[in-house]
Design a protein that fits this description.
This protein is α+β, with helices and mostly antiparallel strands and 269 residues long. The protein contains eight helices and nine strands. The mean pLDDT is 93.
Amino acid sequence: EPGNVLALIGLGDALEARGSKVTAARVYCSIIDLFPGRADMRRFAGERLARLGGGANLLIDTYRRAVADRPDHLTGHRLLAYALLRAGKPGDAFVAILNGVDQHYPEGRFAGGERVLAEDAGMIGAAFAAAQPAQRRHIEAELARRGLALATTPSTRFILYWETDGNDVDFHIQDAHHGHAYYASPHLRSGGDLYADITTGYGPECFAIQGTPKAGPYRLSINYYSQGPMGYGMGLLEVQRYDGNGKLSFEDRPYVIMNDQAYVDLGRI
């Protein structure tokens, strides 16, 4: 079954486990070859490739095409912007994230998503300004036009995507003090907030801690609250750290969740 996406993912996972990253990358690229017109498949393949490192131009290309095909999918703009930033192209990343901010999305489609994009714009703008100080005034002006500003506060964000529509993946965050944040209780007393509960597919759901996290390690997990018509879910947990001065670091944890009401442990931070 050469078009069986789960088989390809399983093969890629097995190859990664034995250290065969080049062959794993070829397997994930075959998902793009099989489904070139599917923005969700392009994004998911890119999320897998990003974990392997390298291939920046391929990542940028597949995310750019996904955005062109489905500009109404908020997560595509984020993935493209951060792929550009991680490839050392902060100016292009800034343009890409502003395009995401300016895009019109269906009312109520991505609860909390516009807040995530606004923060992204401030962080990417700060990274751009740090790399090219002569552009700072221009960056600040572009942000101000949209009611935004450069990000100056350190933060840690856990951002959850899933590449399926019409379903609900719930994000759970637990700290070392037995605090538990999820859709019904989005705040941790130790610090941090879950922005919103997206029940209609794709995400992003974001849990953000301002300043230095004080209650680690944090245990992260997901629950397939409502499987919907798409069947299995596949996506990415992105761990993002920002130093307040334009420097960002990332950790990518792609996942697959298959059974209705299942829980998947995405590890500790």
